[in-house]
Amino acid sequence: MRAARLATLFGGALLLTTLIVSSARAAESLLIDAAALAVQRSASDVRIVDMVDEVADYRRGHIPGAVRLDVDDARVSVPGRGFRLPNVDEAARLFGKLGLTSDTRVVV
Asked: Can you tell me whether residue 108 is helix, strand or coil?
């Protein structure tokens, strides 16, 4: 079960990154280190998404300015078959609730 949650989390993070990165930024590196994030995190086009499992953990501490995305919100239940990733429209609604646009640089 834990492996399935981690796989879903990874898949959701991958989808999130793939859908948000604009073609102009596609050539940029998709990975940054903590030092680079510290410098860039206050930029208006940067959004940090925290996918910690429990709300209590998020409330106890997260990177300032980060928004919480529950792994269960990043997947869609398929009766009798488990879960799937959101389609484009579902993802757009989800990302919109998090304040993400096509111009947002997302750190998960």
From this structure: coil
Give buried/exposed letters for 43-72 (b at 16+ CB in 10 A, else e). Answer: eeeebbbbbbeeeeebeeeeeeebebbebe
Q: What is the pTM of this model?
A: 0.63
SS3 22: coil
**Residue 3 is inside which H or E element, if any?**
helix 2-20
Cα→Cα distances 87→7, 14, 73, 94, 106, Å: 17, 14, 13, 10, 19
Fold category of 2-107 in CATH: Oxidized Rhodanese; domain 1 (3.40.250)
* 35-57 pLDDT tens trace: 988 888 888 999 998 887 777 77
For the chain, domain boundaries: 2-107
